[in-house]
Amino acid sequence: MSKNIWIDLTNSPHVLFFKGIIKALIDQGHNVTVTARDYAQTLPLLDEYQIDYIHLGNHMGKNKFKKVLGLFKRTLQLYRFSKGKSFDLALSMGSNDLAFVAFLRGIPHVTSFDYEYVFAHNINFRLATKILKPSVIPFERIKKYGAKKEKIIDFNGLKEDFYIHEYNYQEGYLVKKLGLDPSKVVITYRPPATQAHYQQNNYDISIKLLKYLSSNENCYIIVVPRTKDQIEFFNSLKLPNVIIPNEVLDGYNLINCSDIVISAGGTMNREAAALQIPVFTIYKGGIMGAVDQYLINSGKMIELKSEEDFGKIKFVKRKKDFKKDKKNQLDYIQILKQYELI
Description:
Shape: globular
Distance between the termini: 8 Å
Oligomer: single chain
CATH superfamily of the largest domain: Glycogen Phosphorylase B
Low-confidence stretches: 195-202
CATH architecture of the largest domain: 3-Layer(aba) Sandwich
Largest sheet: 7 strands, parallel
């Protein structure tokens, strides 16, 4: 039976997560409506992948008062938008705006997450119908946010395993896009999320690391800023061997064509880990989550705590694999069917 499904996207990684899911739902005969907040590369990525969407709301910056104001403003926008739409199911990755509206409209809402120390979970976990999470995150850590065991859907693996293995990778993507010398080491570098509510990271270690990396003439450092302010800041450093792309790059191909991935945030690191690419974290914001701790403990990711750790980075080319490997792929839609949500 065809369902009327509403998906709300509020950050760039959500586009990557839901891209294949949206197509699969439509292919199976469901009607899918996508709403999106203007933040980071969310809208450019939707345009890049030719996903139809309705732009509703913007990110309000790091000021706490403005964040709360933005929550109320966008929730009202979504509430008005949803009037008379008769949605059967709502899906998101921690959209608090959608959580409020789905609850008020009586729409079943499935939220998902992979980092547990976020105060805003107090909204999502209390209002959502189901909470999809990695099994390595203990229930005890999210109980304080109002989560109930009967709402929990656990999965083994990373959230990136829902989409990263299905992609058709393009060999030589970065050489064609950026004109890189294929003999040099390619490092993808993602700076701290300075506006994120869970990030207390400052630029100290990240800038020292970037200067260290840029001093190696045998490599390119592709910096992927999160905001316009970061673009201006990193351009102002004028570091050698550093590339700040003028266009939105395909995230999948960017990572798979890289020899090393370094990020202060979770999604890019976890995508690299899922593809077995050498990955390093410089995350210093609050408490490290269970997923990142699992990756470090299992040797799938290395933590750079100080300048003394920079020597752990080996500037070597790796053998690229552009074939699909679906042995670890997870099926989001099958989970929805299992719990009779579609």
